[in-house]
Write a structure and sequence with these properties.
Blueprint (H helix, E strand, L loop, with lengths): L1 E5 L5 E6 L2 H4 L5 H15 L58 H18 L2 E4 L9 H11 L4 E4 L6 H7 L5 E4 L6 H5 L3 E5 H12 L1
Parallel strand pairs: 1-3, 3-6, 4-5, 4-6
Antiparallel strand pairs: 1-2
């Protein structure tokens, strides 16, 4: 698949050949759903359990008379109504650490990339250098390119001037190639890759 390369000034920067095995895979909703669900579950931390009545070390002996004491009839110091007693309906330990086959995860990422290529919302830029790291200049460049909510993926590291300029633009999110993931790619209207990002992504799958 051949794609035109542009610059931040919306000028032509030549062509680049994209690997069809990565950028021309037919998307499947079930695979993408599995990968996104796995990603979101992996973000959840394991809940910290609380001690309930069975976990508290206090006496279970009846400590007052059934009648005549002038108070309620209690028979257990572990009851939640007492200081030091067990928690009523406390949080349980739950493990949100699902597993998903590496092949499925890799296939999901290929499909996410391919979905943008198929929809025509994939743009390849020559580089991300912004003169003076000015937000105003970058905003103007993105308006020329006609971009809205955009995910920008660079090579090993994100170009520093671009990262500084994009910091105050809430519609632009930036990631290095190693951080490319299905959820972030799918939730943006446009995907922007640099030449370096394309090389890193293709090496990631071919490696």
């Amino acid at each position: 698949m051949k794609v035109k390369v542009q610059t931040l000034d919306a000028k032509a920067g030549g062509d680049i050949e994209l690997n069809d095995a990565i950028f021309a895979v037919e998307p499947r909703a079930d695979i993408l759903h599995r990968v996104v669900t796995w990603q979101l579950e992996k973000r959840r931390e394991t809940a910290r359990g609380t001690r309930e009545r069975a976990d508290v070390a206090r006496t279970g002996k009846k400590f007052g008379r059934q009648k005549g004491g002038g108070t309620a009839r209690h028979g257990d110091r572990r009851a939640p109504v007492f200081v030091g007693g067990g928690k009523a309906h406390g949080a349980r330990v739950r493990d949100f650490n699902p597993s998903l086959n590496k092949k499925i995860r890799a296939l999901g990422l290929k499909m996410a990339l391919s979905s943008h290529a198929k929809a025509g919302s994939l743009i390849v830029l020559d580089n991300l250098t912004v003169d003076g790291a000015k937000t105003k200049a970058l905003k103007g460049s993105f308006e020329k390119l006609g971009l809205g909510k955009t995910l920008v993926i660079d090579g090993d590291t994100v170009e520093n001037s671009f990262a500084l300029a994009a910091g105050n633009l809430h519609k632009i999110n930036v990631l290095p190639a190693i951080g490319a993931n299905v959820y972030d790619i799918l939730k943006h209207d446009t995907l922007v890759l640099t030449r370096a990002a394309v090389e890193k992504l293709e090496a990631r799958f071919n490696g």
